[in-house]
TrEMBL record:
Its cofactor is Mn(2+). It comes from Qipengyuania oceanensis. It comes from the Bacteria. This is Amidohydrolase. Residues 210-307 form the Peptidase M20 dimerisation domain. It holds the Pfam family Peptidase_M20.
Amino acid sequence: MKRWILASAAMAVCAPAQAQDLAAEVATDMPMLMDLYRDLHANPELSFQEHQTAAKLAARMKALGFEVTEGVGQTGVVSVMRNGDGPTVMIRADMDALPVIEQTGLPYASKVRAVSSAGVETGVMHACGHDTHMAGFIGAARRLVANKGAWSGTLVMILQPAEEIGSGARAMIEDGLFTRFPKPDYALAFHDAAAPAPAGMIGATPGYALANVDSVDVTVKGIGGHGAQPHTTKDPIVLASAIVMKLQTLVSRETSPIDPAVVTVGSFHAGAKHNIISDKAELQLTVRSYSDETRKALLDGIGRIAKGEAMASGVPEDLMPVVTVKDEFTPSTYNDPELTQKLIGQFKQRFGENRVAVMPPTTGGEDFGRYRREDPENIESVIFWVSGTPQALLDKVAAGEATMPSLHSPFWAPDAEKVIATAAEALSAAAIDLMPASGG
């Protein structure tokens, strides 16, 4: 499968003539969009705390002539523009930032501190690039309003809260996103990428693009006692260790090798002193899959293994492990293959053959997938990637002088101008292609 193209020459391919007008229009917006980006970057807000972010973006959408509803799904914003007969296209951007202390050294770096939902004071940073998403979203809105003669249909543009905790899409849906507002025929979004490719390259994945993400807690109970007399105890650390090792077989021996799955134990806590056998051990797992069937098999398997190992260790029935699947579930994101291939072809015509790649799926999570899941027979959706990696960083990585920071890193500083310009043009062009004016 084709992957990100590393050569910077990939950016040199010229777009066809018919793309130049829209590209030129986006270029005229860039000074304003970059000012917006820097403001958003310097003033990030955590999940479900995006009050100021939502207000300033809602004001811009109202000024463009959209029917704007605020407070959808707590802090979400829905903007609707009806422009004649035709399909309904929804474009989404996410607004929330992460509890990360920024270390980019940018002149507009965030110095914001806030209290998270867990009650912990923390630094706040747009370490996942949602600030570029919002600026690109506004850029696309401006171009679509300016080019209303080129499309016919209904445009629904949503600003979603709380993507980082996997709750924002669900909150908007439960608050009537598809009953109070026009339900889309097509749903579009993009995400910046910390990719080994020049900033401004586009990648898309037909089919499963991002994974189901589950967080699972396993509380392993035992009978504590003196470390010098282990025979009088039921050691939860030994039992939990056996559970950790057996969990590896869920992927290696119970899941098809061509069906990607991940079961990672990210945390193991037990005990407090050298010579005391604790009465409890606690495991925290992240579980990744694509299909709902595989997800169920993995989650069921975790419960079965935990109980089975406890029984094998002679733990009493009333002390069986407790497995808790957290409510922070993020469903897999499925890009409709035909629509994805159509957009890839259109992007290649617009941006150039070597600036667009078909990407392999990732086991990262994104709650954008919830929108299609609400009505998979009638809603087609695509999320695509736009590389944000600055050329200077690519050169240093190639020379062995630097490593590539990932999304969520305190050092992630994308080439925002190229991300925003590319995304604004791609989103607006895709929407126009999906609802062309009659005779267009």
